[in-house]
Amino acid sequence: MAEPAPEHDSGVDFQRGPLGEIEPARSRHMWTRSAVGVAESGDLVVTGEWDGTVTARDADSLETRWTVDHPDHAVGIASLEHDETIVVAGRGDTGAIAAYDAETGDQRWRYDTADDVGEAVKDTVFYLPYVVSLETGTDADGNERLYAAARRYERDGETRQWHSTIYAFDTDGEVCWTYETDASPIALDLDADGERLAVGYNRCMGDHDTGLVVLESDTGELAWTWDPGTDGDRRVGDVSFDGETIAVSSHGDKRGYLLGPGGAERWHVDLAVETEIKGETLYAYPNHAYANDGRVAFVTGNTYAAESRETESRHPNEHRVAAFDADGDLVWDDTVRGFVHGLATDGDRLVAPCAQNFRVRDPDTHAVRWFDLESGAEGVERIDGIATAAAVADDTVATIEEPVEYHDEGATRGEYALCVGSLE
């Protein structure tokens, strides 16, 4: 990809609201520490913080409607529209999923995933039970459901293990079914008809050895599986349904795939495959996939070297968003400049919260950028810190800024804050 063209600020008026204190991020990326959600109506924004604080604010004024303390670090947010419920995913001792009334903040129900995936065996964040993904939708019988993926990691010498459970909850918090493996789930997506739930597994180092599992949404029974067929334990980065097809970003071979029913391959594209540059083999992981109305977009992450931890070179397709048509032909591509923790989507709009490019450490990468799936770049809002989470609904876009301190600067950039704007 060519050198990125100069960017111009969008002119959108973003409001800011402080979120208190948090330890500055460093040159390398930290784990997920914040979450943000926008109600489908676009009038309510909810933030989740590393200390467990969950706050609902009016999207126009940022006035606080309510604040609660979640049992764990609040790292994921979804909403159940039928009952006007906010659901918060946790990372912590209990791996709690809790539902709160959208108007009052009163807790409606709670489920501790540690009861299934087990408790942390070591006092470090990577060992804590972690609800890594939430997905909501209506099943084939018209019932609104919450789907969740929880996992826990442990290591004993050279032995590494994952314990994970996929859940389907009804709106009262009752478990409809579970699906358990010894692999690490990373993404969920429900098809438009509410009949199938796709689960992407990122790390497979045990008996479960397939990157994509598609389940019947009403029963949790296995419908079909797919895998890139690569060596090693890396498998899938993200999954996204579009009608009867499903887009998959592959960590195994650094390609993007479009699959039909049963996992039949429609096409695949090279995204950031291993490439020789200045005597090194470089690659980047395709971390995100989004499919809608015959278009598919993939977003890649950081450059890595196959044989060393450090490299002065960069893969030409790192930090890139690329959109393809139904036949797998490139429609447009662009740079996102920095690492995208999580892609927010609504219809044909993609919102990328761009954090640091840890190999370049250029503050111009710090921004929230949005794209149209049909035509490409739409706008950018630069921030002093790093954008680590985003949400979008009904033209309202929200992002979380976290402060960052690069190791070779010694100065803190930005603050812990919520930024909200209207893209109308």
Please characterize this protein's 3D structure.
With 424 residues, the chain is mainly β. The protein contains 1 helix and 35 strands. It has one helix spanning 114-117; strands at 15-18, 35-38, 44-48, 53-58, 64-69, 73-80, 85-91, 96-101, 107-112, 130-138, 144-156, 159-169, 175-181, 184-190, 196-203, 212-216, 222-226, 236-242, 245-250, 255-259, 265-270, 275-277, 280-292, 295-305, 320-324, 330-335, 344-346, 349-354, 367-372, 376-382, 386-393, 396-402, 404-405, 412-413, 417-422. Strand 33 and strand 34 (412-413) form a beta hairpin. The relative contact order is 0.13. The mean pLDDT is 95. InterPro entries: PQQ_b-propeller_rpt, PQQ_rpt_dom, Quinoprotein_ADH-like_sf, WD40/YVTN_repeat-like_dom_sf.
Strand content: over 45%
* Share of helical residues: under 10%
Radius of gyration: 20 Å
List the uncertain runs. none
- General shape: globular
- Number of beta strands: 35
Structural class: mainly beta
Q: Total number of helical segments? A: 1
Main beta sheet: strand number and arrangement? 5 strands, antiparallel
- Kindly report the spatial arrangement of strands forming the biggest sheet: 22-23-24-25-26
Distance between the termini: 30 Å
Let me know the average pLDDT. 95
Protein name: PQQ-like domain-containing protein
Domain Pyrrolo-quinoline quinone repeat: 51-226
Organism: Natrinema hispanicum
